[in-house]
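Weekly structure sync - notes
Attendees: PM, LS, DV (DV joined late)
Agenda: review two folding runs queued last week.

Item 1: First target. Sequence and structure tokens pasted below for the record.
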Amino acid sequence: MSEMELADVTIERSDPENPASAGHNGGPPLDEHIPEWGNRGIGNYFYWKAAHRAAWKNPSPGIVAFRIRKAERLGLTYEEYTLEILERGRHLQVEDIERIAQIKRARAFRNSR
């Protein structure tokens, strides 16, 4: 086709109810894309992601069994108990009544939303 013939070609929508023009692949608009790390810049995102992956890497079955038993005794989930070890660097004891209560309140708040 010559350039003159191309200028006369009009693109019509195949489906009038679909706002995407002909030739549109139907994907999300590029200007509204939010990257995995958010809108604030990349910063230390990949370092944090690698550290998170390493922290939650599969421990030995014996450690998992120990944490599950200990968490059940305290009325916590395995994830809550493990997160407490990772964040605070210590295992919760029966005497840590206030901290255990805080974790349970936070769980109830998350579940209520």
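Item 2: Second target, run right after the first with the same settings.
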Amino acid sequence: MTTFTPEDVNKLKQLVNEGIQVKGEMEALREGLKDTVQAIAEEMDIKPAILNKAIGIAYKAEFGRAKDDFDELETILETVGRTL
């Protein structure tokens, strides 16, 4: 079993306390974003999942990859006659 020095204990306490605070802030921000997305989705008659996907793609700066994936999917569906 690991033995911690008093200095280690203080560092761990600080880390855990700061971690709890950050996790709480992240949860509050996620909930706020969820509420905002829901409100905009209802207002604009857009599915919340579509708005969340747009946010995720924009955040990761992956529009090019998402577009390439969609183009490939579209080609497959057109090939098998399932675009309607």
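Discussion on item 2: The two ends are 63 Å apart (CA to CA).
Action: LS to circulate a short write-up before next sync.
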